[in-house]
Design a protein that fits this description.
Blueprint: E1 2-4, E2 25-26, H1 27-31, E3 40-43, E4 51-52, E5 54-58, E6 71-75, H2 84-96, E7 101-104, H3 115-124, E8 128-130, H4 137-172, H5 177-187, E9 194-204, H6 216-228, E10 233-235, E11 240-247, H7 255-274, E12 279-285, H8 295-311, E13 329-330, H9 335-343, H10 346-356, H11 358-361, H12 371-380, H13 385-392, H14 396-410, H15 417-437
Parallel strand pairs: 5-6, 6-7, 7-8, 12-13
Antiparallel strand pairs: 1-5, 2-4, 3-8, 9-11, 9-12, 10-11
Helix pairs in contact: 2-3, 4-5, 9-15, 10-15, 12-13, 12-14, 13-14
Length: 440
């Protein structure tokens, strides 16, 4: 029968998808404890760096089916004492199940392992340890308990730092598949899981945006929240905090996916309210990432959602969600921007901008210096010269003059629906380009 040692601080170490401790020690650390004094590594010494996350006893061969990854198994060897083929099969299956290692009390029922077992363990770097006969299961299990109790906080901090560094890489320059797989495992992330980026921006209680620097008290509160739920987080230079949250599906249209994100956002706000902070936050959800390779795109779309919210003075009142707890904006709700960003690649985007926007930016003369700003205000004012003039504090005739100049430079006629649709799309493409070119 297989017995598992249950740690009092288990919930702090659960990963998102597996009930396996992820802040753990290695086999090498284990052998340095008092109860393992006198132990001898008889094979697989190169595997002593394997993580030990669970501790179990194997008294019957069929219990091998219950072994978990990173579990260190101890046995007396009684049930396999006279069967060398079964002994090799046990070692093979433990390695296949990614167990941390095997500890056995030699000279009680098994005096030595056959050479083929030792060769296999050495080749696979699977540690086989001869345990001291004087140590009981309680002594051995107590060693790993106290080892974890004394080092868990340090490992938790190291793991949080690893997640932060990994997230920073994911949103700037994603690594190769091989490197990403290794780093994801080290950070305790599901390599093929679905995620979404949340950008958190600080605001005062009355809704005004804070300065570019997020208040330290708010940063600490958000970091505590992220660490409690094992969410990778990264504080970026322009006063925002980036969170990476796990999802169960990459289908954003799924009610369950949207509700899950709303619950996370509501939980953040509740934490801040309970902390009685003078600050609140605006939160912008990016597109769902179907894997870690898509996290950079989720981050970019979250930035687009934030920029549109900040620039769109006629934005609707913020949605309160289906479950209470308001959020600022989901990228998926920005239908026009979604369509443009999802269907027009960067090269094509740059070509349209170079053809229609660059001439306006580079126009000569004082009177032409604000052509792009005028065009943007004109479109934002629902193509009304009067509203545009009021917004820019200019005479309506000035707006009319500038709009004629813009049409001449772009070789477009805004009385034609197709030309007007084109320039509106290009202006939005330019906004997207500006957002993505900003320093993260």
């Amino acid at each position: 029968m297989l017995f598992w040692l249950v740690f009092l601080d288990l919930p702090c170490f659960l990963s998102w998808r597996r009930r396996v401790l992820i802040c753990a020690n290695t086999v090498r650390d284990l052998l340095k404890t008092q109860s393992f004094t006198g132990s001898k590594v008889i094979a697989g010494e190169k595997g002593l760096g394997r993580t030990v996350a669970l501790f179990g006893m194997l008294d019957a061969p069929d219990s091998i089916d219950l072994v978990k990854p990173d579990e260190f198994i101890i046995t007396t060897g009684f049930s396999i004492r006279e069967n060398h083929i079964l002994q090799l099969d046990i070692v093979r299956r433990l390695h296949e199940k990614k167990a941390a290692g095997l500890g056995i009390k030699m000279n009680r029922y098994i005096r030595e392992f056959s050479q083929d077992i030792l060769d296999f363990a050495n080749a696979c770097e699977f540690p086989i340890v001869s345990l001291p006969n004087s140590s009981t299961f309680y002594d051995l299990s107590s060693s790993i308990f106290f080892l974890k109790a004394n080092t868990s906080e340090k490992h938790a901090d190291a793991l949080a730092e690893e997640r932060t560094l990994f997230l920073r890489q994911l949103i700037t320059s994603p690594p190769s598949a091989e490197v990403m797989s290794v780093r994801a495992e080290r950070a305790g992330l599901d390599f093929s899981g679905c995620y979404a980026v949340l950008l958190v921006e600080s605001r005062t209680q009355d809704g005004a945006r804070a300065n570019r620097s997020m208040p330290p008290v708010l940063v600490k509160a958000l970091q505590r929240f992220a660490n409690r739920f094992s969410y990778p987080h990264h504080r970026i230079s322009n006063g925002l905090l980036c969170l990476l949250v796990p999802l169960t599906t990459d289908d954003f249209s799924s009610n369950a996916t949207r509700k899950h994100l709303c619950e996370i956002i509501a939980r953040i706000r509740k934490d801040l309210e309970e902390g009685r902070h003078e600050w609140t936050v605006s939160i912008f959800a990016g597109a769902v990432a179907g894997s870690l390779f898509d996290v950079m795109r989720s981050y970019q779309t979250a930035r687009i959602a934030r920029a549109v919210e900040n620039c769109d003075e006629q934005a609707d009142e913020k949605d309160s969600g289906d479950i209470g707890g308001s959020f600022d904006r989901f990228y998926a709700d920005l239908t026009v921007y979604c369509f443009l960003f999802n269907n027009i690649d960067a090269v094509t985007r740059a070509a349209y901008i170079d053809r229609y926007i660059s001439p306006l930016v580079n126009a000569k003369g004082r009177a032409d210096s604000d052509l792009l700003a005028t065009l943007t205000a004109f479109l934002r004012s629902n193509r009304s010269n009067r509203k545009c003039a009021r917004e820019m504090y200019l005479h309506e005739n000035t707006i009319i003059y500038r709009m004629k100049k813009i049409q001449k430079i772009c070789n477009l006629d805004f009385n034609k629906a197709d030309d007007l649709l084109l320039i509106e799309a290009v202006v939005k493409l330019y906004e997207i380009s500006q957002i993505l070119s900003d320093d993260a």
